[in-house]
């Protein structure tokens, strides 16, 4: 499924949280509460836990989930089919990471998503940023942790938005819509619980977000 220039590392969830670590226990807790089916409850900060740590663990988990979901449709998301990175006709995304590419560039969806996933991977691998992921609990989080986590989640949302707007027919053919919907619902409830993504950024999927939310009231 991996085409041309795209590096295989990008589409294999590589970010593992080491077994035995406190964050691994948190991940197990998250998985267990998800199994209960109550997503609103599942995203809440467990009693006595550190907010940054909870956000870090879940961010890694969402990165892995989106990696896998997008990985199943890469053959349908090509330079030809998706020459721009969009979420429907009204929303187009241009890539910039502030370091290598400072001025936003217009690029195809597969290229944009490759940049995006590689950038997220680099953030998660950056010792200064995510030293606490998989390390001894109690390591202080860097001051800019929350702003970086918010940027990661904002960008991961764009991959969901692109899949829903441009590739939902492929998702249906692969019979993956239930998996996609559950993953996205979990993601949305999480970012809503901790107010991590600006409402304007969520606009491309606003109707879907309202629909998913209304079923849980």
Automatic annotation (TrEMBL):
SUPFAM superfamilies: Mob1/phocein. SMART domains: Mob1_phocein. The keyword Transferase applies. One of its GO terms (molecular function) is kinase activity. It holds the Pfam family Mob1_phocein. The keyword Disulfide bond does not apply. Keywords: Kinase, Metal-binding, Transferase, Zinc. InterPro entries: MOB_kinase_act_fam, MOB_kinase_act_sf. Zn(2+) binds at residues 77, 82, 162, 167. PANTHER family: MPS ONE BINDER KINASE ACTIVATOR-LIKE MOB (PTHR22599). This is MOB kinase activator 1A. It comes from Podiceps cristatus. The lineage of its organism: Eukaryota, Metazoa, Chordata, Craniata, Vertebrata.
